[in-house]
């Protein structure tokens, strides 16, 4: 008798500024996932927040499809939680980058529905999305981070001069100004002097109520190396080889990540040219960062490395953790695992296994006496 296929929902789109990146990731997963092993259901969320199934979900990806089915998130989650319902799912693979997909909100919906899902839970997702909370967790775990200041949009609007003074008291230029809760380098600016700070703060404040201002690693005139590690696992995570990004622009912003092509595009070097000691240190830090934020399934951990100064080792600091990193076939997360011996289709299988493992483990928890 044939084994029943797992019914896997691939959820993509969303209301965040990373909607298009989500569609790219979903296309790659849908092309690579084994239809022999899984019964795949496409689930889309458009920019207005409408949940789509069947043909409309495929149209969101730019593919023609069958008759549209519109649902709310709650109705799809309820169907997922009840296998007797025709659209019942065994597992959801959310490919939602950024706000409302990577920040714990959709994960809370899956928890309510008691359905297995790929990736971190509510806490890990929320911590990994909020750069301020993330840095607090890194600091508590004794992990190295760059000096930074966190300000609220309301503080900036009420008294920008006071905010500028507090930034300049704590940090030295250049600084990076970032929305606390956003990914893909959206809304981030590198600021070399006070004259550019106001525009950078206004831009970041347009994307989030919290603004994180970080001191540039290595100081003025230094361009630190940008290193990345992919982490895979639940309670016993493992780290990939270390990769390096050579940005096409001054830093790895949205345009450098997704919009430049040919001779102008950013370059990835996998594995990065590091000493064995440096590579080992960075991989251990990646796993510790994963655990510090209570992550699960997958994450990409990003580092900055300033050149060694006389008599001192190179400065290596944690930049951030991404709990749902880009997942196109050419994204760093799958490329790092490919270089570590796990192909893209096998990586999808492993993430599904980890989601089911985590869901089974959760069944051991009692929620009432």
Structure in words:
The structure is a single chain. The chain is of the alpha+beta class and 369 residues long. It has three domains: 6-117, Rossmann fold (3-Layer(aba) Sandwich), CATH 3.40.50; 128-144 and 222-357, D-amino Acid Aminotransferase, Chain A, domain 1 (2-Layer Sandwich); 148-215, 2-Layer Sandwich (Dna Ligase, domain 1), CATH 3.30.1490. 36% of the residues lie in helices and 24% in strands. The strands form three sheets. A six-stranded mixed sheet has the order 4-3-2-1-5-6, sandwiched between helices. The protein has a five-stranded antiparallel sheet with strand order 13-12-11-14-15. The chain has a four-stranded antiparallel sheet with strand order 7-10-8-9. A hairpin with a 5-residue loop joins strand 2 (38-45) and strand 3 (51-53). Helix 3 (73-81) runs parallel beside helix 4 (105-113) and helix 5 crosses helix 6 (131-140). The radius of gyration is 21 Å and the shape is globular. The mean pLDDT is 89.
- Do you know the CATH topology of the largest domain? D-amino Acid Aminotransferase, Chain A, domain 1
Mean pLDDT: 89
Regarding CATH, which class of the largest domain? Alpha Beta
Low-confidence stretches: none
Please give the largest β-sheet. Answer: 6 strands, mixed
CATH architecture of the largest domain: 2-Layer Sandwich
Order of helices and strands: EHEEHEHEHEHHEHHEEHEEEHEHEEHH
Beta strand count: 15
| Molecular shape | globular
List the domain count as a whole number. Answer: 3
Q: Give me the side-by-side strand order of the main sheet.
A: 4-3-2-1-5-6
State the end-to-end distance: 41 Å
Share of helix among residues?
A: 25-40%
CATH H-level superfamily of the largest domain: ATP-grasp fold, B domain
Strand pairing plus helix content: what structural class? alpha+beta
Task: Kindly provide the radius of gyration, computed on alpha-carbon positions and rounded to a whole number of angstroms.
Answer: 21 Å
What oligomeric state is this?
single chain
Tally of contiguous helical segments: 13
